[in-house]
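Practice set, problem 2.
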Amino acid sequence: MSTATGTATENTAVIAKVGTPAPDFNMASTKNIETLGENVRLSDYKGKWLIMLFYPLDFTGVCSTDLTHFSARFDEFSSLNTEVLGVSTDSAHSHRAWLRMPKELNGIGEIKFPIASDAGGKLSRQYNILIEEPNISLRGLFIIDPEGVLQHASVNTPAIGRSVDETLRILQALQSGGFCAADWKPGDKNL
């Protein structure tokens, strides 16, 4: 059970399913970008909501927009007791290089949340989003509640980015504690 390679710590047979405890993980990350010596674990987020953004590859266009757009709105997530975690099958070293590369050279610069390495694809497999060959993840977005229960899952083809506005709407609907009708918006009454 290696943590330096960015592998999940639980049995691969644990498959993520909305309404059940999220699979545990312990992955190398950019949490300490200088040393890459600080892993991220599901338990780090206990008591907070967590949005996990799985994406296919570092140094690619749609992935760059996903992470930079979520970072630009990070304070809105933070005000909702929510953390964000980027995840791909690239190494933590690749993540660091991407973060340090200038935007004009296809880098993303500094972002306000860590990126984790699922290098072996174990966590991506548990969330049923791993493309085995060439070992990349689909564009998955998962929302985990403060008790560690998976509350929302959406998966896009690698060609389609996510909507920060829709993610915030879904998060606030989940936090409202009630039934939310179609097109529910923050401030609307629950059913």
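Problem 2, part (b): a different protein.
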Amino acid sequence: MSLTNVASDRLRASDEALASIPDFSNHEPGANEFAILDPSTEERIATLPSYSTEYAIEQLGIADEAGRAWAKTTPRHRSDTLHNAYSILIANRDRLAYVISREMGKTLAEAQGEVQYAADYVRWYADELLRPAGGFRENPAGNSTILTRRAPIGTALLIAPWNFPMAMITRKIAPAIAAGCGAVIKPAKLTPLTTLVTVELLAEAGIPRELMRVVTTTDSGAFSEALLSDPRVRKLSFTGSTGVGSTLMELAAKNIVKSSMELGGNAPLIVFDDADLERAVEGAYLAKLRNGGQSCIAANRIFVQDGIADAFVEGLAEKMSQVRVGRSIDDGVDLGPLVDDRAAVSMQRLVADAVVKGADLRAGGSAPEGAGYFFEATVLDKVPTDADIANTEIFGPVAAVSRFSSQEEVLAAANDTPFGLAGYVFTENLDRALNVADALETGLVGINNGVPSSAAAPFGGMKQSGQGREGSGEGLEEYQEIRFYNIARRETF
């Protein structure tokens, strides 16, 4: 089969996937509409309604009522339903991947990887909910027994980002469903189609549609204020910028809504002289280029010790220069477009500023001509501390490398940020790896590992990178309340 035929087959398959998205256009007569664009071509691929706050409140009522009924179902029923959902999601891997790739811009291979990653959360919580946390202890006074148990927290408001449009939805909705909660879901306005398909498949698996109410809107501020002012919302989960997260926390505080926040990052990646060079280059490549660098845990500041720096930069620049940029669904493409025009313009500005201030451009550095929001995989070496890129969450395929001499020096630089989501350490010395990981002020650390995320891990940050955790058993507890029963005892003999 020729490359032309492969391309046409993929385009046809992706168009069919887009055509299969549920039609929500008649749910609220008179609703405004907004367009969804393919960032590879800048062409409109769908139009969706921007619902009013009144409509959103109606959906909250539906989810709240359904959640009260769902909370009474058995753990086994919820587990079996989620296991069925996992199977259905995997069976629809290609369909989901095409939708992700077309609306968000990641390559088809990466989109297929996201489907698996997203489905893993569903499978994880299908099992995790059968291991409920509880406790039994004696009152020290000896006159009572204390039992602790967990109960569903209530209706959740789930606000998802655009960069992982499926995984960030399942990472929130799966523990909510497992715990026995209903939810109102607001996908990002740039990538809502994946959410619509995902929720439809979850409903096909047996999760009540009333339990998962999707509201698309371009007025995020009014939507959030309206729902967080309603006492029926008892849980907020948000992934996005620190600025928006701070505003949402203020709104949530009025009704004492339990909140989990996964916010901005400024991840340091540290390569010591004793690192395995090949593994360090590969790890940095993955930590930087995954999702085109549009990840909150992307390696943002790459610190390389003097003794290995030249070889590391040469290896990374060679690898990045071989990255093939192109339309996300095309065969052989390593790097798709950025999500929108603002992102592409931001890359150009950051690279230009760094070069003017003394950084060495070792690979890439420009945007290809033509339609689409593309930018080359780029390596900057010897980035000065006053460059904007050294103090900004890059969110793009630009690796900013600086050099260091001592462990003390690099730790001071790595922690010199208000953010603390992720960090990376590359060294063959186990003591150094653990000591540096302990010293990093981040919620997660990849040690000789450029892709540390897992459904089994408690994902979350420190400082201004958020609060609460997603994934693992801790992620389920975010949707539960701890209760205790104190049972009085008296002697009978």
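Answer key, part (b): The longest strand covers residues 144-152. The two ends are 86 Å apart (CA to CA).
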